[in-house]
Amino acid sequence: MKTYLEFETKIAELEGKIAELRSISAEEAEEGGINIDEEVAQLQAKVEKALADLYHKLDPWQKTQVARHPERPHAMDYISALIEGFMPLAGDRCFGEDHAIVGGPGWFRGRPVMVIGQEKGHDTESRVKHNFGMARPEGYRKAVRLMDMAERFSMPVLTFVDTAGAYPGIGAEERGQAEAIARSTERCLLLKTPLVATVIGEGGSGGAVALATANKVLMLEHSVYSVISPEGAASILWRDSTKAQTAAKALKLTAHDLKELGVIDEIIEEPLGGAHRDPKATIERVGEAITQALSEYDGMDGETVRKQRRDKFLAIGRTLG
Length: 321
Description:
Blueprint: H1 9-23, H2 26-31, H3 36-55, H4 60-67, H5 75-82, E1 83-84, E2 101-108, E3 111-118, H6 124-129, H7 137-152, E4 157-163, H8 170-174, H9 177-190, E5 195-204, H10 205-212, E6 216-220, E7 224-226, H11 230-238, H12 244-251, H13 255-261, E8 266-268, H14 279-295, H15 302-315
Parallel strand pairs: 3-4, 4-5, 5-6, 5-7, 6-8
Antiparallel strand pairs: 1-2, 2-3
Helix pairs in contact: 1-3, 4-12, 5-14, 7-9, 9-10, 11-12
């Protein structure tokens, strides 16, 4: 059963009618004088037009809802489809394993790579296991360990960013959450192999930056990337989380805003109606974008790769009026 967002009422009604028609048997249709195929085709055309009209003018808050859609493909979906021979590695060698961050070596279109992703999970059991994609310090320390390994074996690093933010629990703070995030961000900056990050859903706060300080930052069209969630910003600024819609607009968290500001490098177009409507096509587009991004660093030495990344982030904001 499909999950519809609050602004997709018209889409839900039209697709509900299509489902009703398809449930009618051929004999019943003939008796009632209904041409099911023709009716379905007409309704499907209306659905596609409604989706095109709606998704062409999504506001920042609506894009935030799309980015959080439960059926949107997550990190493991991309890894399963794009990475051959993926071997997940566990533990930070300091405290323990954090399932919110998954990672390990594999092959991307014939090239050995290190993959690191923030995994939210698809159902209640997996979401609890992965802590809804909110990593603890051991998750970021594991990411640093994997980046160290990638540099040692001259493997590019691919990251898939999808988190509401780092886990804010007492235990995480006791184990040095801020320091772990800072170390992961620093390791990204110092890495001497190409790093390509893709924001596939939510890019929340330092928890996202810790894996997205990359040579190339790609972002799906309806993903979001911001220093704080709209609800969090509204709670701080107005002490009222219901003003999240206003906060979302002020945060400039959409892909188009961030491309204009120079925070990201490329926007990956999503299928009509969002990534959750056609995960296969979305994943293929992401794969093509990553391939193109990596090709720019073929033959480039490690120090040049590192310097390009450093200069890129130092330049952000310097051209703004």
